[in-house]
Amino acid sequence: MSEKNNTQNIPDRTWWKEAVVYQIYPRSFKDSNGDGVGDLQGIISKLDYIKSLGIDVVWLNPVFASPNDDNGYDISDYRDIMKEFGTMEDFDNLLKGMHERGIRLVMDLVVNHCSSEHPWFVQARSSRDNPYRDYFHWWPAEKGKPAQRYSFFDVNNDAWKYDSLTDSYYLHYFSVKQPDLNWENPKVRTEIYDMMKFWFDKGVDGFRMDVIPFISKDIAFPELPAEYNGDMIHYYANGPHLHEYLQEMNREVLSKYDIMTVAEGAGVTYKEVLDFVDPDRRELDMAYHFDGMNIGYLPGRFKAMNPEGYDLLEFKRVYSLWDSVFSEKGWGTVYLGNHDQPRMVTRWGNDSPEFRELSSKMLTTFILTMRGTPYYYFGDELGMSNVKFDKIEDYRDIESINMYRQVKERGGDLEKFLDDQKISARDNGRTPFQWDESPNGGFTTGTPWLNVNPNYTSVNVAAQDDDPNSVLNYFRKLISLRKNDLALVYGKYELLDKSNPDVYAYSRTLDGEKLIILLNFKSKMSSFKINDDLIGAIILLNNYPVPHSGSLLRPYEAVVYKLEAE
Ligand code: NOJ
Fold first, then answer.
1. Partner residues linked to 297 by β-bridges
2. Cβ < 6 Å from ligand 1: which residues?
3. How far is the CA of 9 from the centre of ligand 1 (A)?
4. Is the N or the C terminus of the chain less surrounded, counting Cβ atoms within 10 Å?
């Protein structure tokens, strides 16, 4: 710990503020039994690797029993493990192995919806007077068609599915196999809280909460109010009883354990986020926003990126704004990719052979030197990049497959669609982890559920583990830097050289200690202008072997300077 960091002056020091979270997509991490699907035994076999990174918390995407319409985000039994992933005993061993290594485990809580194969739904759909009927949202057909609600994964965009068995529609914001749970029913809430306690009592250290802002609905299902026209996500995120339920959840469950929670902040704006994470409100600990992820798309075209790239000024504006929200209270998060996004280096950096490593390191520097808990997606520590499939048959994601069908039905430009998907598709971020240069990157001895990125022959753990200049070891160094300097965790953030379109420069200050972070987001030499004198400043980390000097940054250069004490 830095001598200058006087920890007395930091109010509310908390483990999850100081943690680095590493996200593992279990389907793609390591397959132990040759069926082509990653599993819990696979993760167990790699715990020493995970430990070697220096991370503190693993967020595991859903591992619960599921028919896998949406890769585990459709749960058919919240208290059991998906067969492909293993058994409850494997889970218990995984948790034990993590805890023995000082790593905490955060699971995915998917309770806006469950699977249509969950016994609750099987019961509920069987008759209108079934005791489970009110666990879901139904609209009797004799009342006519319900008001339009849009679905994310439905080919017709329709969130109401007609079910002839009881002559009613049920609500599904996501796929038809993901019916929305009715949170207005207290029995549903009690079931969910009990289930959460089941996992906490096992020793799980927290939950990442899937589309949690969507749980409360106006059950009169009125026409979409005009102000939300074209902004259904924001409407979905503003249900009438949302915060009552989160406070109840906190009272009934969360407050009883030393755990962390992070909301998937879909539809939540910077003006609303403190309603979720202001500690005085006793709801959740953190939320991750979508404003950063929404940068760079073409207006009005879902998931089509602007070929000109994105505007760094916009990027800086968004991240600075979101930092300012938490300057007095609450706590933020920083991430540049996850299982719902393409690979960060392709999207925010440059995945050409010349710049892939440099820009991966630069982006990693950003994530780990901002204020807020870093959420780091597995594989980014190797500089894994988008796989860029050529044909729809290579995709496994319901989102891409259904969008393709939509474009086809509309007679749209399928080639253009596939080109866009090479940049934006979620499967780009879901390809198997690249362990070594053996077939399929050492992920599986069988046929992988999703093709491995062919660059595994050079981009893999084995090639990078012992190379002091690798992306992997740069990540490890940054983590230890963050761990050893509380200014990187708690220090005040200030944007420098605000109007520079190429360089993101900022300072982090704590108790007289000042760090300057300089990041060149461009593939050219870029200049920067800051007021602080860097002569005599110490370089704590640089992504080039020859140390930085002067007022220019080399392509994708990242430098962390520590100023001499004033
Ligand atoms: C958000 C999850 O991150 C995503 O993967 C999933 O498809 C939807 N929620 C539905 O659960």
1. 305
2. 70, 73, 110, 174, 210-211, 264, 339-340
3. 39
4. C
Backbone angles phi, psi at 117, to 5 degrees: -95, 0
> Up-side HSE of residue 141: CA atoms within 13 Å toward CB?
9
Global pTM reads 0.97
Which ligand 1 atom sits closest to the C-alpha of 153?
Answer: 7
Known catalytic membership, residue 394: no
- The pLDDT value recorded for residue 2 is 45
Cα 40 to averaged position of ligand 1 atoms, centre (Å): 21
Of 25, 73, 154, 396, which is best to mutate to test ligand 1, by the most ligand atoms within 8 angstroms of its C-beta? 73
357 is catalytic: no
Nearest residue to 112 via CA among 49, 62, 55: 62
User: Which atom of ligand 1 lies at the shortest distance from residue 73's CA?
Assistant: 11
CA of 114 to the centre of ligand 1 (A): 11
Are residues 216 and 183 in contact, defined by beta-carbon separation less than 8 angstroms? yes
Q: Encode 44-55: b = buried (16+ Cβ within 10 Å), e = exposed.
A: bebbebbeebbb
Four-residue CA torsion sign, 441, 446, 452, 457? positive
Looking at ligand 1, which residue's alpha carbon is closest to its atom 1? 210
Distance of alpha carbon 504 from the chain centroid:
22
- Contact between residue 435 and residue 30 where contact means Cβ atoms under 8 Å apart: yes
Cα 530 to averaged position of ligand 1 atoms, centre (Å): 41
Pick the atom of ligand 1 nearest to 340's CA: 5
Atom of ligand 1 at shortest range from CA of 338 = 3
Distance 52 CA to ligand 1 centre (A): 29
DSSP-assigned beta bridge partners for residue 168: 140, 163
CA 421 to chain CA centroid, Å, is 19
Helix, coil or strand: residue 441:
helix
Q: Whose CA is nearest to atom 10 of ligand 1?
A: 73
Q: Which atom of ligand 1 is nearest to the CA of 112?
A: 11
Please give the pLDDT value at position 307: 82
Measured by CA distance, the residue closest to atom 5 of ligand 1 is 340
Per-residue pLDDT tens digits for 232-278: 999 999 999 999 999 999 999 999 999 999 999 999 999 999 999 99
Strand partners, 209: 109, 263
Spatial separation of the C-alpha atoms in residues 79 and 554, rounded to whole Å: 52
pLDDT tens column, 437-460:
999 999 999 999 999 999 999 999
User: Nearest to residue 461, comparing CAs of 53, 5, 9?
Assistant: 53
The list of the chain residues with pLDDT below 50 reads 1-4
Tokens standing for 72? 């585990």
Measuring CA to CA, which residue among 373, 364, 399 is closest to residue 289?
Answer: 373
**First-to-final CA distance of the chain:** 19
C-alpha 68/C-alpha 332 separation (Å) is: 31
Contacts of 100 (CB under 8 A, 6+ apart): none
Contact between 383 and 357 under an 8 Å Cβ cutoff? The reply is: yes
* 221 Cα–ligand 1 center, Å: 23
User: Hey, which bits of 476-525 come out as E strands?
Assistant: 492-496, 503-510, 513-520
SS3 322: helix
